[in-house]
Amino acid sequence: MPKIDPKEKKLVGIVSVSLGVVMAILTLLAFFVFHFQGLPFDWDQVLILALMIAVFPMSVVEYLDLRWQRGIDKNIPRLLREIAESGKTGLTLVRAIEVSADRDYGPLTPELKQMVAQISWGGSLEEALQNFAVHARTKLARRTADLIVEVARSGGDTQEIMEQLNRHIGELQSIDRERNTQMRPYAAVVYIAFGVFLFTDVLLVRGFFTQILQMQNSVQNTMGGSSTIFGGIASVDIALLKKILFHAVIIQGIIGGLVAGKMSEGRLGAGLKHVVILMMLGFTVFAIFVWWTVI
User: Fold this and answer.
1) Residue 130 is part of which domain span?
2) Exposure string for 97-119, b = 16+ CB within 10 A, e = fewer
3) pLDDT at 60
4) Is the dihedral of CA 216, 220, 226, 231 positive or negative?
5) Does one domain contain both 141 and 236?
């Protein structure tokens, strides 16, 4: 699992947004200044494509960073357990951490090696742990670092304290897993609601709007092109209704995706992947069943 530095995340975000803005400007110029007609999509549809292209790199980076942070949190209890076991052999806390740095803890290992290197260069254990918490960027890592600092300050039976700390961290992770398990179904509710809304829109276009269009054509043929009878039925703009429904689908996809990420994983950034999936689903369904279908 690669580590994504916060500066790299910002750089990806800036580049992605810049790319999206450039594509949007070029789209507006092509359609409204140069009157380009060579694309199978309208200008607003191309803008949505530009938005998806802009969001996609950020969603990938956020997903990789979240996986890396989960890898850190997953290996912290094992690290604490093995530090406690090393204490049984008479090793000091610092020496136990140095021994643990030679083992494989996934994404946690490079952070441990960096912490051990800082200590070997003359830094204190407290400073090394604080830097570890900053680099790990997880709540559990910060909490663990603070507790280990207190253990180092208090002295006494380090082995017993580390075992208690391991149990405490395990209980915190159990609480987080239980919360995630309870909240994850709500993300499925977002997808179900989006699917129902999308299906309803397609049903309206291919069913109800088709009937209106047929009635409009029949009335115009009967009245010789008149467009103002039966309460204005003949003046209904089907293309505009399609556009409104498509925009509503995209808005729901964006909001629903962010809500799904916040509810299931506790972070709005985690919802970017849901945003991309929902927007792509809505765009594809409209392209196949609405825009490229003659009604």
Assistant:
1) 73-176
2) bbebbeeebebbbebbeebbebb
3) 92
4) negative
5) no
